[in-house]
């Protein structure tokens, strides 16, 4: 709940989220828990092109002053997390994210699917 507070702050967190449709269909808890979780989601494109599991790109881009830009890739694993900050890794994961965005369903389709599954 504490992590969700960043979504309600005065200057909201800017984020892009791409979820695999499987997260809607794998039941964790019971149907009521799943419905409540789905109420927090604003998805059908088949297998994605990222080629790996989940990852998060943290940071910011500043085209006007590149020295203010910073980014790191976070990969969550079972017992620890891995942070990657070298240029090649960042470029590779940013490209994967671009592929994912290109394959993701549009907002209208995603909302329709979410309503159907819920």
How is the secondary structure organized here?
Elements: H1 22-25, H2 31-38, E1 56-60, E2 70-76, E3 81-84, H3 87-103, H4 107-117
Antiparallel strand pairs: 1-2, 2-3
Q: What does the main sheet amount to?
A: 3 strands, antiparallel
Strand order of the largest sheet: 1-2-3
- Please mark out the parts with pLDDT under 50 across 5 or more consecutive residues, or reply none: none
Percentage of residues in strands: 5-15%
Separation, N- and C-terminal Cα atoms? 22 Å
Quick one: how many beta strands?
Answer: 3
Secondary-structure-derived class: alpha+beta
- Secondary-structure element series: HHEEEHH
Instruction: State the helical fraction.
Output: 25-40%
Number of helices: 4
Overall shape: globular
**pLDDT averaged over residues:** 78
Radius of gyration, in angstroms, nearest whole number: 16 Å
Brief rundown of the structure:
The protein is of the alpha+beta class and 118 residues long.
Structural account:
This protein has 118 residues and is an alpha+beta fold. The chain has helices spanning 22-25, 31-38, 87-103, 107-117; strands spanning 56-60, 70-76, 81-84. It has a three-stranded antiparallel sheet, covered by helices on one side. A hairpin with a 4-residue loop joins strand 2 (70-76) and strand 3 (81-84). It is globular. The mean pLDDT is 78.
What descriptive keywords fit this protein?
34% helix, alpha+beta, 118 residues
């Amino acid at each position: 709940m504490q992590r969700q507070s960043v979504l309600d702050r005065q200057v909201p967190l800017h984020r892009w989220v791409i979820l695999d449709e499987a997260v809607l269909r794998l039941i964790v808890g019971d149907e009521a828990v799943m419905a409540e979780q789905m109420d927090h989601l604003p998805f059908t494109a088949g297998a994605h092109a990222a080629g790996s599991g989940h990852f998060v790109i943290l940071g910011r881009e500043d085209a006007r002053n590149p020295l203010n830009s910073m980014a790191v890739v976070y990969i969550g694993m079972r017992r620890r997390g891995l942070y990657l900050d070298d240029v090649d890794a960042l470029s590779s994961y940013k490209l994967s994210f671009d592929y994912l965005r290109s394959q993701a369903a549009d907002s209208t389709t995603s909302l329709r699917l979410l309503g159907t599954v819920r």
